[in-house]
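note to self: the first set is below, dont mix up w the second
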Amino acid sequence: MIKLFFAIFLGMNFAQSQNLDSLDVKISFHQKIKMSDGVHLSSNIYKPFDITKKYPVVLVITPYVSNENHSRGLFFAMNGYVFITVDSRGRGNSEGNFVPFENDGKDGFDIVNWIAKQEWCNGKVGMFGGSYRGMNQWLTLKYFPKNLKSIIPIASVGPGRDFPKYNNIFYPYSIRWLTFTSGKTNNNKIFGGSYWSNKFEKLYKEGIPFNKLDSVIGLPNKTFQKWLRHPSHDDYWKQFYLTPEENQRINIPILSITGHFDSDQPGALLYYKGHMNEGNTDAKKNHYLIIGPWSHGGTRRPKSELGGFKFGKNAVVDMNELYLNWFDWTLKKKEKPKLLKDRVMYYEMGTNEWKYASKIEAVSNEKKSLYLSSLNTTAKNVFNSGELKEQPLKEDNTPDVIIDNPKLNRGLTNPTNINSDNEYYRTQSIVNNLEVLIYHSEPLKEDIIINGKIALETFISIDVEDVDLKFDAYEITKENKSLFLQSDYIRASYRNGLSSPKKVEKNKVLKYLFSGENFFSRVLKKGSRIRLVFSFIDSPYTQRNFNYEESPSYQTIDKAKKATIKLYHNKKYPSRIILPIKKE
């Protein structure tokens, strides 16, 4: 009876192992790799069972502990690759201290060189991974290890550009992430829950200076404080991007992947455009870009629904198959992935079709401007809104006005911030916020295709030293359904560029150009209207600006100033929304 039980048990495990942990894979756990400074990083190595052969290698370097890549390691090993996942310096089983961004490039260089010397490596190494693991591929590439032959950077973080701040406005989320990646362990349980929203709301409600946030959440953090000392996009942040000379040197195939709703799309496209603008002709021919209808996580785990939007089944790309086909092409000289019909592949929402172009600039071919106007209205009510018109009105001389008083703490009760609707890209709660300006276009006379970033050019005066401004754009269908299109933020003191602040002249009308946060593609239907909502930033989930001349990281609520914001629109000050249109 015991023998029979053992045989059944063994048979069950064998069947399970065939499906999950194939017996044709050899794994070496916690293998140490010595860096050039003597620190040892830990790796898990997955090899095809026949270790008498040499194989191309797929590498992931992660701050989230190598255990996360177990299934991926099995997949690649069963498909003829050695797969190696390495804990970032100071994380998991690796020695040293984890300092985000600062050691990733040199460590990546050392790791690739170590791999190339192993008896199971045929001299070809590819890298892939998303978010932080996408960014560290670019940092490794800056060092040009000769055996790095291909990369797939997915949803790459843009240090200082989309994390831990966007347009020099910091996010409280940054300390949540720093806590998640603190110490050696996987801190998944700490990362989730309502603890964080409660602490962010405490900071907001009590007017606690932003630089005290790490103490408020219970983890004083040197990295957080260092980041705050670099509020501009200065040399500290610029070191994490490729120089023109480095972009020119790139000579390997690259597959960049991001999403319409990817919070790290700004970083992903910054790396991509840097190479496309400064790279050599041959290398640029082998740099492909995919932009899907995906969130940040969706760039690796695509879904057919997001925030109330429903896409076709074709939005759910088999990413494992794509990665494998890409490396088969670039590391094994097999056929190019059939999915890549041209160098730019993007998903057109509305028709739910994949579209293709030879370069990202070719996805639109016209700019359409709609000019803000508000004759006989204050534009502060959705039912008595301003207008978006084909031409600016000469006689429209009265500016629209909103007032930002930080001491009122309206961000805690504004409908936008308390809305918990799962269909967050279709909610209309923003029009119920206090102190917003609302503008509508006439119904569209025909379908239009918007491909790219919606920009907003405004002429504004403020009566304080600084303020944070924002806009949101929507399609309002004939059925009065709201579809989110675009948003963007500006800190007034950085209106002329992110490298250094420039003092705002009080009560002087100045131009503010919002360039748009994310690329997207959507067909707006005939009969729909475009809605523009303009306001200031007032949320527990974004750094507060108390509207005086000091870095908002160190401002105090007792010095907060009420800001009167005037938005002008006429022929002298032609404030307008700019739509990137594709005419077919």
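second set (the one i keep forgetting abt)
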Amino acid sequence: MRVAGVLDRVTRTRAAVLVVALVAVLLAQMAVAMVTTAVEQTPTIDEPVYVGTAQTYLREHSLRFNPEHPPLGKLVIATGLQFAHARLAPGFAGDQGALGRRLLYESGNDSWQVMLWARLPVIVLTLLFGLVVFAFARDLAGPVGGVAALTLYTFSPDAIAHGSLATLDVPMAGFLLTSVWLLWRARCRPRTQLPLAGAALGAAVATKMSALPAVPVLMVLAVLSYVSYACRTPGTRWWRGVVRGAAGAVGMALVALAVVWAAYLAVDPRLRWTTPGHVPAVHGLRGLAVDLLPVPEPFRDGMRVQFGFENERWRGFLFGHRYHGSLWYYLPAALLVKTPLGMLALWAAGAVAMVAAPRLRPAAPYVLVPSAVLLAVAMNGARDLGVRYAVFLPMFLAVAAAGLVTLRWRGARGVTAALAVCVAVSSLRTFPYYLPYANEAFGGPARTHLHLHDSNVDWGQDLGRLADRLRGRYRDERVWLVYKGSGVPSAYGIRARDPRGVSPGRVHGLLAVSDSSVAQARGRLAALIEDSRPVDEIGHSITVYRRA
């Protein structure tokens, strides 16, 4: 018996060491992928705004820029800018887009260095959220399930692509997942876990307002956790669990609200704020909701700006079709293109297993309901601009897929492992071009631009690669450029003119066009492209044509 006990402990220790090693390897490969991507990509469309705003937080403690997004995510970016030693003259009076250009290109800073330091804190957060994915899945399905979920997360092209940028989508989604995981753990220890869940929820809302629809969902989950705890406690009636759960949910919401206020006070302890002139008036139920929320005034104005965005008609592109407005099925269709095939299969099977398997069913409200609500809200939004609006799915559904390893079917683990390997192979094949990723059924990243546009393919990230290609392969040739992005071509040594401002007969030589501009090409640009011959592509996001 003693020998058997020793052997059992040795086996468990070896298994634990193997799990730790696998977690380290998975996170390391994700780190390499994200850092490589961050080093090679020029600023995407949104990044200069966030980075410029973060710099004003640091140097001026001013909230006047980018009110449509709360400050926490930009404060995270600011932690990296501390090491960039970037210069920016105080009192800039232009708009937030011009602010980003001033910081990166007009103040004597090294834009590559500034962007890398701005992106590194988000990369670190993305890796930490990987640990949350692992921990959540391990709680549901054991260490094997944890490793399976982490594999899907760390090889997710969308998680890598947006986790390597100084943007807000991944931080918001990760904080939200953390809150849900803590609510799941609150089923056993509600008094300690609910306040932590409230802090994580507050961090999500203080990063991006699109987390707001999850707040009532998570409050219901807080009640559910307390009821579950009451049912497990001898001598406690379920209705007392409901009462205590309601109180706990209110307490969690108050903690979340405190975090939101703290984020604004961390920027400016005096909360100096003047409503900008471009903030639209909001009426009806939306206006009432904005007025009743006990949040700082800059948050309210940010909500008004967001509602203004939702009232606009944005241009969309899906499967070669251009349109104005939004399509309710855009996000599911885009996810079908942008998600590895093995991952789609595991997501679907995991969601079904979570509802059907008795062991997993208690977790279904925690894993599936928040992601379903957020997806439904995003599908009804006005902006069909990318799957980044659903970047929470690779996190939540990786946890759902982990449940497959608990099924009694003999081949469950083998099939899960095989599909996870397929996901890894598909992800590695696209390295380092994660932003324009498309799965094999849609032709891979080289053909994504035929199906989708904007941040799914071309978000301005390849201006530096274009400069390198022009210097290396097309030196001294005449270049015409139609670029969709926030970068400044001349800052990277690109000497080019916009062909749309001259007669088509004068446009000869090379014509470089961002693929999002190709997708939306009309009039003169469409005619120029039609009369040109494609000769090169840059990063699967910029097409180079030759005109005789």
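remember for set 2: The chain is about 60% helix and 5% strand.
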